[in-house]
């Protein structure tokens, strides 16, 4: 979900009839959250949000630890609930914050 949200942000930065920048497109072809944040151009906003909202910072840290291989790892149910909370917390959630940057 976070990967898709970041890629949506990146896609919005290309106008409808513009020819996409090849280098930018290649940089976006990744699953790494940190890299996508950089390509999306929201590093400063993210750092500011983490400094002002420690709960959001903790949620972000949990989400940022996800990799495309995580889905194949055996996890405890508490890990899954923690990730869902980090994504969906109504006031401090990662998806709520990302939706403000699409």
Can you tell me about this structure?
The protein has 102 residues and is mostly helical. It has one domain (2-99). The protein has helices at residues 2-12, 22-28, 33-40, 43-52, 54-64, 77-88, 94-99. It is globular and about 45 Å long.
TL;DR of this structure?
This protein is mainly alpha-helical and 102 residues long.
Write out key terms for the chains shown.
7 helices; 102 residues; mainly alpha
Low-confidence segments: none
Distance between the terminal alpha carbons, to the nearest Å? 13 Å
Strand percentage lies at under 5%
Task: Give the domain tally.
Answer: 1
- Number of H- or I-type helical stretches: 7
What summary fits the major beta sheet? none
Share in helix = 55-70%
**Shape, principal axes of CA atoms:** globular
Calculate the mean pLDDT score and round it: 90
User: What's the total number of strands?
Assistant: 0
- Judged by helices, strands and strand pairing, the structural class is mainly alpha
Q: Give the radius of gyration.
A: 14 Å
Task: Report the order of strands and helices.
Answer: HHHHHHH
């Amino acid at each position: 979900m976070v990967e898709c949200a970041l890629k949506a942000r990146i896609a919005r930065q290309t106008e409808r009839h513009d020819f996409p920048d090849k280098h930018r497109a290649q940089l976006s072809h990744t699953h790494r959250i940190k890299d996508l944040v950089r390509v999306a151009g929201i590093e400063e906003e993210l750092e500011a949000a983490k400094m002002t909202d420690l709960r959001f910072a903790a949620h972000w840290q949990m989400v940022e630890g996800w990799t495309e291989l995580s889905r194949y790892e055996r996890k405890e149910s508490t890990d899954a609930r923690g990730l869902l909370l980090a994504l969906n917390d109504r006031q401090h959630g990662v998806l709520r914050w990302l939706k403000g940057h699409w």
